[in-house]
């Protein structure tokens, strides 16, 4: 069995701006591939370009889209055509039948009905190889290339049957010299007299071999010689044409589509097979591996190898070329929660290299990124790369002291100094240091305060690892600043002005304004490093449990006046029966697990199993935006039966396994098995937990115990087991007496 064949790349693609079932694209790519490919069915220049209900296509897009809300960059679209007349406008679309189209992580096969040809393609890490077969040997065979937006260039090398092109489409700030170089090489001669170049708006250029324009389109024609086939390759580089040629030589030359599809499938199988499951049913099996696939598309490799095999990268920070790794296309607000903790179990080398790449961005820009596409951009509150670095250090992924010292210096900078521009640093950091919270004039002030406090905890983790105890105690103290926004009267986190006055025009259903993509219900519990301290604010663990009960039983009401309209996250929360727990978005991901952290695992089991069963399905999609593998990672962890409740701490809180059995093949070469005895869809509760044959008295697993290998066994039942755990059995919390 090939695990990659269990993946449904259409999962999450049935989305519209007002309602998301993932907002994902069906990508053919390598794990973390620099180049990805997808069928383009909509003229969405920068955003989501595919929808499964469409019946026409404008070709196959070479894409770097990390999120439809962030937009695509450096993309181009390729369409094989037929006919003596070339068309440069969007009218060149063709009908296609999705149900007879092959879309896999390792390649695409499709018929262009208008042009009566068939295309097969396979991705490499930095390019792709294509085969086209036409039905009519007597017709003129064409290849239309849309260079996207912004200034593009094309140079046709007739003798060597190549096009050297550049595309520079972007949305967010990039260096002035930013462009993607590509070399497209064909195995058929060009028909010089029939080649046409112009713009997608219909402007036509005079015949030439070199072109430069925005909205550039080149429509190649091939000599009519009786052949009905075409083989061509596309190699990309962000460094130079010479490097693109080197990438072609290394990855594409002499390779067939079938060979590269097999290579891509093998690469995916290597990653996907690191977790094996025994599912309850076939749909669960396909949903699991479809989600696991999504966790391994991002962050995107942004480095290349020279002729001597040396790693180097174009810096999206300053436009220069440096040795070493670089990764991009990631929103740490989302991915720190689930994606990197998953890598910490099964991909140590890859995770360590990613950290080095992100640290290289700091070395080249002077600041760590919050969101990358491909450079740092100003999106989402908090500096959650803090949690990524701290998790890597706490779990032994990164061990080199000099690297860890660089991490601390980078994190310490944005925790104390205002950024040079809005995309860098922590917004309002001066107020945070002065008042010990972000004041209400700042947008999303509640989330920023809580996120900065958690970030400070992560910095403390690294300081302690380095033996910097004065810094450790300083940041641990700062990690308690979340307390300053708690309102004991309403038991919500609420915004304050510089005088300590809470906002008067406030209700528990207000979304936006002081909160991020949610309201008080969704954002008042984000204190993963100190759940005991959070409970103390409510009056103890039982009081917090009652508050959570109220959360899940409160109708999904919301007010949209801060946004001025209803945003899709509101619609998605109201569409399901989870009260005010908006599992359609990241701020609520940990909320069901708070029950276990309060010693009530039965309540966690009920809600997480309900979510797995009702909100995720490979034929339907996700409960909201998938976001760089984050929501997929939530499903993967939850299906296995545990969850990284506090990245930066090497522990995982117990949930309820949704599968009968899973085996994690760790990067240490060990196997950790979770067995859910007699599991079924209606058996969501567990009892008799045992680790390696011994009764287990905790409601969390240690990272080190998983890496050691062994068996964790639970007996599943349809009835609540009534298990309760005391403070010492529920894992790390800053305020626990044992941690003082």
Folded structure, characterized:
- With 740 residues, the chain is α+β, with helices and mostly antiparallel strands.
- The chain has 2 domains: 3-269, Beta-galactosidase, Chain A, domain 5; 274-298 and 329-726, GH92 mannosidase domain (GH92 mannosidase fold, 2-Layer Sandwich), CATH 3.30.2080.
- Helices cover 27% and strands 22% of the residues.
- It has 19 helices and 36 strands.
- Strands 6-7-8-9-17-13-12-11-15 form a 9-stranded antiparallel β-sheet.
- A hairpin with a 7-residue loop joins strand 29 and strand 30 (651-654).
- Helix 3 (282-294) crosses helix 18 and helix 10 (445-465) runs antiparallel to helix 11 (469-478).
- The longest helix has 21 residues, at 445-465.
- It is globular and about 80 Å long.
- The protein starts with 35 loop residues before the first strand and ends in a 23-residue tail after the last strand.
- 56% of the residues are buried.
- The model has no long low-confidence stretch (mean pLDDT 96).
């Amino acid at each position: 069995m090939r695990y990659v064949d269990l993946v449904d790349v259409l999962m999450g693609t049935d989305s519209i701006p007002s309602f998301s079932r993932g907002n994902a694209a069906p990508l053919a790519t390598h794990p973390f591939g620099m180049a990805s490919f997808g069928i383009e069915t909509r003229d969405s220049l920068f955003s989501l370009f595919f929808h499964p209900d469409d019946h026409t296509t404008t070709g196959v897009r070479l894409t770097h889209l990390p999120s439809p809300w962030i937009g695509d960059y450096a993309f181009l679209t390729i369409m094989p055509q037929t006919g003596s007349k070339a068309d440069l406008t969007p009218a060149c679309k063709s009908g296609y039948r999705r149900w007879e189209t092959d879309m896999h992580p390792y390649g695409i096969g499709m018929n262009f009905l208008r042009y009566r040809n068939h295309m097969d393609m396979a991705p490499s890490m930095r390019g792709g190889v294509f085969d086209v077969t036409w039905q009519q040997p007597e017709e003129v065979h064409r290849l239309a290339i849309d260079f996207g937006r912004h200034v593009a260039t094309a140079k046709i090398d007739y003798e060597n049957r190549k096009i050297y092109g550049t595309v520079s489409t972007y949305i967010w700030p990039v260096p002035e010299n930013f462009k993607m170089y590509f070399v497209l090489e064909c195995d058929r001669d060009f028909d010089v007299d029939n080649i046409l170049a112009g713009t997608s708006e219909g402007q036509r250029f005079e015949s030439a071999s070199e072109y430069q324009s925005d909205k550039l389109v080149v429509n190649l024609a091939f000599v009519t010689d009786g052949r009905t086939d075409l083989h061509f390759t596309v190699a990309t580089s962000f460094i130079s044409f010479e490097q693109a040629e080197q990438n072609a030589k290394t990855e594409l030359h002499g390779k067939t589509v079938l060979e590269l599809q097999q290579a891509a499938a093998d690469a995916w199988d290597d990653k996907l097979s690191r977790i094996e499951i025994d599912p309850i049913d076939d749909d669960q099996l396909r949903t699991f591996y479809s989600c696991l696939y999504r966790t391994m598309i991002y962050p995107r490799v942004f480095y290349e190898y020279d002729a001597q095999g040396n790693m180097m990268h174009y810096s999206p920070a300053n436009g220069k070329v440096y040795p070493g790794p670089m990764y991009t296309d990631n929103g740490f607000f989302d991915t720190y929660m689930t994606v990197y903790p998953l890598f910490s179990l099964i991909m140590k080398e890859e995770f360590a290299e990613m950290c080095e790449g992100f640290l290289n961005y700091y070395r080249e820009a002077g600041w760590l990124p919050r969101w990358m596409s491909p450079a740092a951009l100003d999106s989402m509150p908090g500096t959650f790369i803090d949690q990524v670095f701290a998790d890597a250090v706490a779990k032994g992924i990164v061990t080199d002291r000099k690297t860890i010292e660089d991490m601390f210096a980078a994190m310490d900078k944005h925790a104390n100094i205002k950024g040079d521009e809005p995309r860098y640093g922590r917004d309002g950091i001066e107020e945070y240091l002065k008042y010990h919270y972000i004041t209400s004039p700042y947008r999303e002030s509640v989330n920023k305060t809580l996120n900065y406090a958690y970030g400070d905890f992560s910095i403390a983790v690294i300081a302690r690892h380095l033996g910097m105890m004065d810094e450790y105690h300083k940041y641990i103290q700062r990690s308690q600043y979340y307390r300053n926004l708690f309102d004991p009267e309403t038991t919500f986190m609420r915004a304050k002005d510089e005088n300590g006055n809470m906002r008067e025009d406030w209700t528990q259903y207000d979304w936006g304004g002081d909160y991020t993509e949610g309201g008080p219900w969704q954002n008042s519990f984000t204190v993963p490093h100190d759940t005991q301290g959070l409970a103390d604010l409510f009056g103890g663990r039982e009081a917090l449990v009652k508050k959570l009960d109220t959360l899940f039983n409160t109708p999904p009401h919301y007010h949209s006046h801060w946004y001025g309209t209803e945003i899709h996250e509101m619609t998605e929360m109201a569409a399901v029966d989870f009260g005010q727990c908006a599992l359609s978005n990241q701020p609520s991901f940990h909320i069901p697990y708070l029950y276990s952290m309060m010693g009530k695992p039965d309540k966690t089991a009920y809600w997480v199993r309900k979510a797995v069963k009702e909100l995720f399905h490979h034929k339907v999609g996700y409960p909201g935006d998938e976001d760089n593998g984050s929501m997929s990672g939530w499903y993967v962890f939850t299906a296995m039966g545990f969850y990284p409740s506090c990245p930066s701490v090497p522990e995982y809180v117990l949930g309820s396994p949704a599968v009968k059995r899973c085996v994690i093949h760790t990067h240490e070469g060990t196997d950790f098995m979770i067995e859910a005895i007699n599991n079924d869809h209606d058996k969501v509760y567990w009892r008799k937990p045992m680790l390696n044959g011994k009764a287990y008295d905790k409601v969390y697993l240690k990272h080190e115990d998983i890496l050691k290998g062994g068996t964790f066994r639970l007996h599943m039942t349809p009835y609540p087991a009534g298990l309760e755990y005391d403070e010492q059995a529920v894992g790390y919390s800053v305020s626990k007496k044992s941690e003082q």
